[in-house]
# Entry
Amino acid sequence: MLNHIWTVFWRDWVVLQRRLGRYILARMVSPILYLVAFGWGLGRSITVNQGSYLDFIVPGIIALNSMNISFNAVGTPVNMSRLYHKTLEEYLLAPISPTSYVLGKVLAGVVRGMISSVVIIVLAYAFGAHFMLNGWFIVALFLNCTVFAALGLVAAMIMNSHEEMSNFNTYVLMPMSFLCATFFSPTQLPSLLHWAIELLPLTHASHALRLSSSTGNMPGASLGVLLLYVALLLWIGIRKTQQVRD
Amino acid sequence: MIEVTGLVKRFGDRTAIDKLNLSIPKGELFGLLGPNGAGKTTTIRVLTMLARPTEGQIAIGDWQLPRDEQQIKAIIGVVPQHINLDIELTAWENLELHGLLHKIPTAERHKRIEELLEFVELKDRNKDMVQTFSGGMKRRLMIARALLHRPRVLFLDEPTVGLDPQVRRRLWELVRQLAGEGLTVLLTTHYIEEAENLCQRVAIMHKGRLIALDTPAKLCQNLGEYVVEWHDGDRLNSRFFADRAQAAEFLSVLTAAAAIRRSNLEDVFVEFTGRKVVE
# Structure
């Protein structure tokens, strides 16, 4: 099985490697905009918990960016390969298990999410942000990438057109980008909304990244929630891959 | 090699395959012929596990579906109707991916890729992206890919759709060569001459049902080896005869301009399905 996971991953790695330079360059655009607008622009006049707003939002930007990248690195290509290019058939016809396919694709999404996070971390330091890189931070980042790469796979298997995929982005990822403790603490929101937001995985990714990068402590509860999401979404992804034939 | 019993496939209320029975021995080049929507592609999709059967039994080699899916996947090669090559990879990488998925050891895999690229005459383009290939080249690469893991059964779904006559003939040669080497081939086509040229036996499907099955020569014989055609106003009439003498006798009493010729698979097809095959 490990062989097959590696094969599925290998294909995506070959494709990424060919345009790694361009990929990294493209990944710099939106973080720079966020850092300029919210860090330098808006952030100059705001302090959060006696710290600078820039320091507060960097973990949030990393969380939302790794979410978007991991989701789209898996969701769009797998959806296209299922509906338009039909290259998914190559995997369905091969003697490999749906689990190997799902894990290989998710791993490829995680790698893309991690690369784009490295880009943001470098940029954030360049913008003068203060935060600690440590093991818990990397674990939280890895889990966040895995949650959303797996969600991308699930969406790709369920959504039956390119338009539906982009609607999924609009209705699910976009609200999370703004609400899940990325740019502000959700404790300031009405309690019902706050409670709902606390259930979402990105909120816990933001909490975990912020806590580990500011104090070095283990964000236990949030990591637990992320792990639960990983298990649930991988399970659904494997089920959906098994059911993908007519 | 392929045994299908009572195969039914329904999509909601629509029955795409209706109680299909097929038995194809090892090494046979078998053609599934039928107009668009007859159920040919669905049959291939069910046999290759891309679609689930509603009812019926399928055995390929010594294996039974759905119990032995992985074993069957290892011994079948599939060339689908649509181009499903990975356009973000080169020709070589497409084959490498296939070889890795089938767990062919590295040295053997690379040797086999070289061999097959030569076989389908794409060796000098192996480093090029598939996106830059013509339709014929893509199809040849798909055949190479399907053969890479040395399958015992090859499924070809409309292998020559949209190809030039020269490329089509080249593909026919390839397929004949493969069948000569003991590979069992099930191909679907709606090009009559393709079935006539290639297949040892032909089954005609119509609206999901199998309506005729025999060698092309036998099918023609059963219908009548000679046909007389004559025009009646705008309509072209035809009548079949067992031998030339009978046909000539009939011709002699006709007042309209008429012609006599040998019957062919197209006549069989039209007689059975009631309309000309159109792409």
